[in-house]
Structure prediction request, 197 residues.
Amino acid sequence: MPLHDRILGHFQASAQTAREAAATLAPAIEQAARHMVHCLAQGGKILACGNGGSAAIAQRFASAMINRFEQERPGLAAIALSADTSTLTSIANDCAYDQVFARQVKALGQPGDLLLAVSASGNSPSVLQAVAAARTRSMPVIALTGRSGGGLAEQMQDDDVFLCVSAESTARIQEIHLLSIHCLCDAVDSVLLGVEE
Prediction:
């Protein structure tokens, strides 16, 4: 297949995945945004975690909360647990890699905070351990996952929000995760800044 056609194929597959995901994810994204607004309005913070591309998505979310998304506003409390390399490597070295987020959640998380857990497969051991740690801190979870949801789907409880992209390709899942993060950021801003219609 010519390279040009492969590139067009990626654009077409991405657009198709987004169209298919829109109807199922939009209500859950709205619910997640309202959870986030409530958390932030009560003085809580959002802890976000993920590995690899999911770490980048978690960091994108935290940066948009702390700085801004598309509108000027005061910073909002969010921490990407994948960003502190000294903490990550010390936990991985002294304990085990699957504890790199869980130990941070136990140290930083408080009742009323939220955990944003991102895993394309839903089976990342470090993310699953972070969710388990959030339970010990009475923190609800917003899960961004894909395929069938993996172990994350099994860990969801009533106060949680489950956002699952039913695609097989990790690239397509992460593209929709990034779009979902942008929708969340816009929704939070819209509610907090009073521009929700």
Q: What stands out?
A: The domain at 3-192 is CATH 3.40.50.10490 (Rossmann fold). DSSP finds seven helices and five strands in the chain.
